[in-house]
Design goal:
This protein is of the alpha/beta class. The chain has twelve helices and 15 strands. It has two domains: 256 residues, TIM Barrel, CATH 3.20.20; 95 residues, Sulfite Reductase Hemoprotein, domain 1 (2-Layer Sandwich), CATH 3.30.413.10. 37% of the residues lie in helices and 19% in strands. It binds iron/sulfur cluster (SF4). This is 4-hydroxy-3-methylbut-2-en-1-yl diphosphate synthase (flavodoxin).
Length: 377
């Protein structure tokens, strides 16, 4: 299989890039402060074949928990930093990789230029021999980049943001980084990564379709993007992000391993992902999920809306307020979960919040009215 000659990045006991085997990653969906559950899930994922396991850390208490989790698992750990970039000092001693999102560097301490924040993160990462991932995500693009391009151009802001961060890390002399460019539309994932690799073939890429949803559709969507990319030599690590209950989380890893195995064996024909049909986008859940009923809710949304299978409607179901509000904007109907209420949106417009008992009939009402408006009922 031809592979792009990216630079080599070490993450604990694994290396990727430079023709090394493709590393399959996954992420814990347990509460980070539940040390026993998170360490057990990290182990479950490692034993299923995850070379790197990511954990969300949003607070000092999460960072404290990480210290104990580190002692209880042999997994190579990565941490997802969200808005508080300074938490990197508390997490870096216990992990092998840190992921930051350029689109989230604007919220915390907005008076500090993003370049200074990246310099801070890179210095701490270098001190503890942690790799970095610049994780660019469709739902949280750097607002300065988003405003520079017409709204229908989703690709340019994401690419420009990634290039800009690579240039800065290069100038800082920090080479142990990779980039990811994720969208929930597999066609955009292919386009984004092809275009990035054409300009920066030296930078390792972590591939994934964000909020791919529940299996089997989530696996089909992910395969539609990852198989052609890997078959053309693009991609050094992968994740299949699936909405699954905690006890089945390792299925993400098995699906990722199957993709790598198929590509290595030359089985590179994929079922095309067909837009123009009902598309349920749902997040894989993580420590930030605000109500344990989220996965069940996503499954019920799929069951409830099955009657609309042939309509070109996208419904997004997201587990929390961190990414929920932004990542439901592009959907026709969006739900994002709070602890007691589910927020319902039609495109970017909020329709209010509803209890977990009220939300499904309200969603059906909205879906029926959308179908009627579009001449379907
Ligand atoms: Fe985690 Fe929230 Fe993203 Fe879902 S939407 S994966 S709960 S951060």
């Amino acid at each position: 299989m031809p592979r792009n000659s990216t630079r080599v990045v070490r993450v604990g006991t694994v290396v990727f890039g430079g023709g090394h085997p493709i590393v399959v990653q996954s992420m814990c969906a347990t509460k980070t402060q539940d040390v026993a559950a998170t360490a057990a899930q990290a182990e479950q994922l490692r034993q299923a074949g995850a070379g790197i396991v990511r954990i969300a850390v949003d607070s000092h208490k999460d960072a404290d928990a990480l210290r104990e989790i580190r002692e209880r698992t042999e997994a190579n750990l990565s941490v997802d930093l969200q808005e508080n970039y300074r938490l990197v000092t508390e997490v870096a001693p216990f992990v092998n990789k840190v992921r930051y999102n350029p689109g989230h560097l604007y919220h915390h301490q907005p008076q500090v230029p993003w370049q200074d924040k990246v310099r801070f993160i890179a210095e701490v990462a270098a001190r503890y021999e942690c790799a970095l991932r610049v994780g660019v995500n469709c739902g949280s693009v750097d607002p300065a980049k988003r405003d520079k391009f017409p709204p229908e151009d989703k690709i340019s802001p994401m690419l420009e943001s990634a290039f800009e961060h690579c240039e800065l890390l290069d100038r800082l002399g920090f080479t142990q980084y990779c980039v990811s460019l994720k969208d929930s539309d597999p066609r955009l994932v292919v386009e984004l990564n092809r275009r990035f690799a054409a300009v920066r073939p030296d930078v390792p890429l972590h591939l994934g379709v964000t909020e791919a949803g529940m299996p089997p559709e989530g696996i089909l969507k992910t395969r539609a993007a990852l198989v052609p990319l890997l078959a053309s030599g693009i991609g050094d690590t992968i994740r299949v992000s699936l909405t699954l209950p905690n006890e089945r989380k390792h299925e993400e890893v098995l699906a990722g391993r199957q993709i790598v195995e198929d590509v290595l064996a030359g089985r590179v024909t994929v079922e095309p992902w067909i837009p123009g049909r009902l598309n349920i986008v749902s997040c894989p859940s993580c420590s930030r999920v605000e109500n344990a009923a989220f996965v069940e809710l996503a499954e019920k949304v799929r069951e409830l809306t099955a009657y609309a299978a042939d309509y070109p409607i996208t419904i997004a179901v997201m587990g929390c307020r961190v990414n929920g509000p932004g990542e439901t904007d592009d959907a026709d109907l969006g739900l994002w979960c709070g602890p007691r209420y589910v927020n319902l949106k039609r495109g970017p417009i909020s329709l209010g919040s509803f209890t977990y008992d009220e939300i499904l009939p309200r969603l059906k009402q909205e879906l029926d009215s959308l179908i009627a408006e579009r001449g379907g009922a």
